[in-house]
Hints:
This protein is of the alpha/beta class. Helices cover 24% and strands 19% of the residues.
Amino acid sequence: xxxxxxxxxxxxxxxxxxxxxxxxxxxxxxxxxxxxxxxxxxxxxxxxxxxxxxxxxxxxxxxxxxxxxxxxxxxxxxxxxxxxxxxxxxxxxxxxxxxxxxxxxxxxxxxxxxxxxxxxxxxxxxxxxxxxxxxxxxxxxxxxxxxxxxxxxxxxxxxxxxxxxxxxxxxxxxxxxxxxxxxxxxxxxxxxxxxxxxxxxxxxxxxxxxxxxxxxxxxxxxxxxxxxxxxxxxxxxxxxxxxxxxxxxxxxxxxxxxxxxxxxxxxxxxxxxxxxxxxxxxxxxxxxxxxxxxxxxxxxxxxxxxxxxxxxxxxxxxxxxxxxxxxxxxxxxxxxxxxxxxxxxxxxxxxxxxxxxxxxxxxxxxxxxxxxxxxxxxxxxxxxxxxxxxxxxxxxxxxxxxxxxxxxxxxxxxxxxxxxxxxxxxxxxxxxxxxxxxxxxxxxxxxxxxxxxxxxxxxxxxxxxxx
Length: 467
C-alpha cells in the first residue's frame, strides 16, 4: 500500500512502495538471459545511463523477495526502483527559526504576522550544506525594498489562509509516521549526505517528438490506433510516436528505443508525443473516468533553463487540450497547479468552465524529508513546501449515458493533504491511484496527461512519458 496512514486531514504516502509494489516482474517465458543492470531502466522508466543506473538498480541475488527467484525450472526476474531517488534527508533550506512541523510552537501565528508585515523570509541567518553558495544566492536575490508586487501579495494572502491547515494537518500525519517508524530522525551518517539532485538524463524524448513531425504523414483512416507489446520489443520510432503502445499482460514488458531499454508496467499503455500529436490518443479509447493533468506552466525557471524538456505552454494552449473529447460523463479531473495565484485562478475561473468541469475541491501536496521536516520553510517567500491540486468533475451529458457498472461514489472532500517524501527526479508527483479509489468506480479508465512515468492500469501521454 502506498498509503501509510490515513487521517481525516489526509494521507501520508510512500511513493517508493507504490512503484515497487506494481509487480515489475517479467513473464517467465521472457526471463533469461537477464538484462544487464547497466542497460535496464529503473522501474520509473527513466532511461539508464552509467551515472544513474548501477548494479544496485536490479537486485540479482537469489534470496526470497529479491529480483531473481526460481520457480521450477524457470527464473522470475523482478526490478526495483533505486531507493536513493527518495533520499531526502535534509530540508533544501535549513532555517534556524523553522522547526519541524510536528514540533511547531504555539507562537507560529505571531511569527507569521511579524514576517507578513515586513515581507522578509523566515530563514534569516540560515545555512544549508552548500553554505557559501546559499549566502551568495540570498545576496543576489535580496530586495532593494520590501514592497511586494500584486502577484506576491496574492500569494501571501493565499498562504496566510491555508497556512494553519498545512501546518496542523501535516503535523498530525507526520506524528503518525514517526510513531510507526516510517519516518525517523536521521542518523549522523545520513546528515552528512547531500540530497540526491538529478538533472535531465537519458535519450532526448522531447527531441524525438520534434523529429516525428518531419516523418511522412500517415493516413489516420488506414493506420492502427494502438500496438501491443509482444516479447522484448524493438519498436520503430515512427510506430511509437504514431499510435498508443499497450502492455495488456499481467507482467512487465521491456521495449527497446534508441539503444535504451524501458520497463512498461502491467496493464498500462502510453503515447509518446507532444501536444500537436494527440490524435492517436483520441482514437485509442472512447472516454476516461479519471484524468490527471500536470501542465508545463509558464514560469521564470523554465525560461532561464534548458534543463526541462517540456516547453512551457500558454494559458490558451492549455485550454486546447481536448478534455471534452477524452472525458466520460462525471469524469474526475485533477490538475496540478504551481503556487502562482495567477495559475490557480485560471484553472478555477477559466479553464474548468471552458472544459465544462465543475470545481469541487483544492488539495495540497506537502513535501517532507525522511525525518518529517518540510523540504522548504513553510513561510519562505521563495519556494513553498507544498503544491496545489484542483479537483473537479465533468458535467454529465444526456448524449453519453453512464456505463452499466457505474456505482455511487463518495463526494470529493475539500482541503485534504497528501504528505510524502518527494522523488528527486524532476517533477515526479506522488501517485494518486489509492487515494482516489474512494471517489471513483472500481473499473475506472484512468489517464495522465504530461506524464513523466508509467503506472499500472493507466494510460499515460506526454513527451517525457518514458523518462
